[in-house]
């Protein structure tokens, strides 16, 4: 495990007392409760105190039992339901990730945006937290319901601790910050940034590889090792996520949205959207309006 230098994990242009956590509550559900498939740009954290539930997350179904923590990432289709009359009690925290996108780890001259890294690898994380993290979650609850001047600050700092714990526990940085392969993370991180900057235009793997002066095949190998995705798969997921953002924040037609995210053919866009999200974009837009 790579040791993180605490002097290099910091805020940059984000007020430490800004309201980042939108809600933090203890909730209870029972009697075959069901919240249907939905999506949002926030990150949700669940810690299950009693009972269990099922969640459909993207194309996977998981069982979340007492003692487990589930973090669902932005733009991920998910649902929450009980398939029995047994009650389920849990801590539920909603927070706005964009306010923390200036939080970095730097090691071996490589700087990594923690949230971008977390959100690039998977749709959700499920783990068994230790007592320290459980204590932090309860502290967030207490501070969120307090009117003290420093409550928001403590909420944000506790949240950062929880995120860093997940980064450490899931060993996310082990590949990217490995001192034995400094060149590899540079290449993959460059690919992330290139896609994020140019996704609205036509992108070929060779475009990225040429900037790095390496072969497309070699870049594909490094990218797949780091993300378990091909460059094209990541590009498509990123484009669909941007399309969902436009569906949420604008009244643009699906044709315009398709063009704006680099998928000019609306039929191709619809097919790709359904393959990634599970339903076609027209039905999804209706779901957004309904929820």
Word description of this protein:
The chain has two domains: 6-174, Jelly Rolls; 182-291, Arc Repressor Mutant, subunit A, CATH 1.10.10.60. 44% of the residues lie in helices and 21% in strands. Strand 4 (52-57) and strand 5 form a beta hairpin. With 291 residues, the protein is α+β, with helices and mostly antiparallel strands. 25% of the residues are buried. The protein is globular, with a radius of gyration of 20 Å. It starts with 20 loop residues before the first strand and ends with a helix. The longest helix has 19 residues, at 151-169. The protein is built from eleven helices and eleven strands. The strands form three sheets. Strands 1-8-3-6-11 form a five-stranded antiparallel sheet, covered by helices on one side. Strands 2-7-4-5 form a four-stranded antiparallel sheet, with no helix packed on it. Mean pLDDT is 82; it is low at 1-13.
CATH superfamily of the largest domain: Regulatory protein AraC
Largest sheet: number of strands, sense, barrel closure: 5 strands, antiparallel
Number of helices: 11
What do the pLDDT scores average to? 82
Order of helices and strands: EEEEEEEEEEHEHHHHHHHHHH
What is the CATH architecture descriptor of the largest domain? Answer: Sandwich
Class computed from helices, strands and strand pairing: alpha+beta
Distance between the termini: 42 Å
Describe the global form: globular
Radius of gyration: 20 Å
Beta-strand residue percentage: 15-25%
In total, the number of domains comes to 2
């Amino acid at each position: 495990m790579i040791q993180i230098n605490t002097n290099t994990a910091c805020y940059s242009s984000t007020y430490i007392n800004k309201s980042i956590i939108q809600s933090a509550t203890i909730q209870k559900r029972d009697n075959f409760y069901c919240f249907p498939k939905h999506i949002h740009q926030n990150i949700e954290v669940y810690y299950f105190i009693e009972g269990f539930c099922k969640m459909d997350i993207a194309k996977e179904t998981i069982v979340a039992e007492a003692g487990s923590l589930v973090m669902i990432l932005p733009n991920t289709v998910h649902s929450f339901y009980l398939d029995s009359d047994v009650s389920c009690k849990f801590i539920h925290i909603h927070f706005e990730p964009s306010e923390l996108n200036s939080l970095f780890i730097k090691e071996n001259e490589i700087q990594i945006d923690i949230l971008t890294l977390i959100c690039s690898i998977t749709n959700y994380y499920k783990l068994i937290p230790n007592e320290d993290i459980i204590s932090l979650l309860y502290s967030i609850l207490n501070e969120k319901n307090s009117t003290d001047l420093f409550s928001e600050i403590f909420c944000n700092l506790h949240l950062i601790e929880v995120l860093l714990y997940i980064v450490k526990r899931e060993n996310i940085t082990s590949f990217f910050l490995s001192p034995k392969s400094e060149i590899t993370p540079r290449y993959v991180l460059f690919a992330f940034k290139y896609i994020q900057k140019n996704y609205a235009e036509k992108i070929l793997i060779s475009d990225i590889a040429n900037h790095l002066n390496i072969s497309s095949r070699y870049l594909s190998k490094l990218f797949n090792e780091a993300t378990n995705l091909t460059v094209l798969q990541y590009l498509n997921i990123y484009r669909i996520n941007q399309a969902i953002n436009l569906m949420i924040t604008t009244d643009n037609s699906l044709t315009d949205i398709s063009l704006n995210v680099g998928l000019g053919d609306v039929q191709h866009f619809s097919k790709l959207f359904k393959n990634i999200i599970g339903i076609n974009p027209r039905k999804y837009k209706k779901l957004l309006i309904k929820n």
